[in-house]
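User: structure tokens for this one?
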Amino acid sequence: MSDNPEKKAPRKPLIKWQKPNVGVIYALIPASIASIYFFGWRSLLVIAVVSLAGFIAEFIFLKFYFKEPVTSAVFVTSLLFSLSMPPTIPLWIAVVGIVFGVVIGKMAFGGFGRNVFNPALTGRAFIYISFGSFMTARWVSPIETGFPGGFCKFAADSITRATPIRILAAGKKIPLLDLMLGNVSGCLGETSAILLIIGGIYILYKKYANYRIVFSGIISMLILQSVLWLGGVKGAPDPLSALLSGGFLLGILFMATDPVSASQTNTGRWIYGIIIGSITVLIRTFSIWPEGIMFAILFGNMFAPIIDYSIKNARASKS
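Assistant:
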């Protein structure tokens, strides 16, 4: 044996698992299982393909530019992106979206912890604008309720059905129980309000998400929605239906609370949440876009650094 054996440098792990990210994944498991129940096993295929594409995109970028392991944050991004997809989304479009979100939305800014915008929403916004018909006009009804539901089918029947947001904007009613349980058309993971709330309570309890953003976002949304609804504004549904429909709960609980792209100061988080909740209502009511939470969060991401900078400067001037 050699007297001076060469010491090999410890090999870096392929994936760096972070407890908060793993906790968010746990919180999204109920909504993911529900997506299979309502829309069939194709939803699991979407999640798997998107997660693989997101991992490969980040792995290649990190390997050649940063020499760092992939973080578990990419799986949170991929899962949130998947759950925000329509059930009929072509797999290749989903792959384009997640790769854009990871590479342009995160890696181009320097990787984990440096991105300005939420990567999942960056990718979704890109394909929402680029492939509008696939993202807005090809909704399907959930598979007939009652066990085993979608667990015995690959995909839901291609029966076009308006989403709850469009139905409510047209002045029609949707039973609140359907919105709570998820027996409505919509994106894969946004339909069951009760499961999203349960997951949201979990990440708030574990402090993986900041309650200031969630509370201020929900309260501001309900207040402005109530004002418009009581004022008889066309296209403004009642506040409870608006809260439980569309992707608002998925967005405010799991995307707006992204600790990297959200405000970093406590005061800023209250302001940031108010901006998101209010703009969501305004976009839903007065724009041609049926769902406003995506653009509202991206708008909030853009102003989060300015909000924090202003708050810190104000505090410094008083001291």
